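BUG: 3D viewer hangs when loading the predicted structure for this chain

Environment: internal workstation, default settings.
Expected: structure renders.
Actual: progress bar stalls at 90%.

Input used:
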Amino acid sequence: MSEPFSVRITVRGYETDTQGHVNQSVYVNYAEHARWSLLQAAGITQAALIARGVGPVALETTIRYKRELLAGDEVDVTCVFEWSGGKTFRIEQVMRKADGTVAAELTAVGGLLDLKSRRMVPDPQNHFKELASDPALFGL
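Structure tokens produced before the viewer hung:
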């Protein structure tokens, strides 16, 4: 298996709380940024999704905090899609400091929403495969 898709983020001071570490909601933003970066790297734009009449949705997010992130820290956020063959898929993400220390692990359950019917599409992996110029980034 190849290395997971990854994007590097530098923690900004305004993302920290009064304890000096990254606010819990920012971890979700980092994860979302990595997911959209993966879509872009695979050749899928937001406009292409809308033109197809679908949009990605988050259904569940679980974060396991391991070590704190502080302003100025650099963190690599990975993104691996896991396909079940149903309407949903899992995204496993690891947030790792530049020194290799795992700061957090995030697991998300997502799907693709049909923007007209407001229902989940039955085969999200096929939509990603057809839209992507590099479907291998999704493990397809």
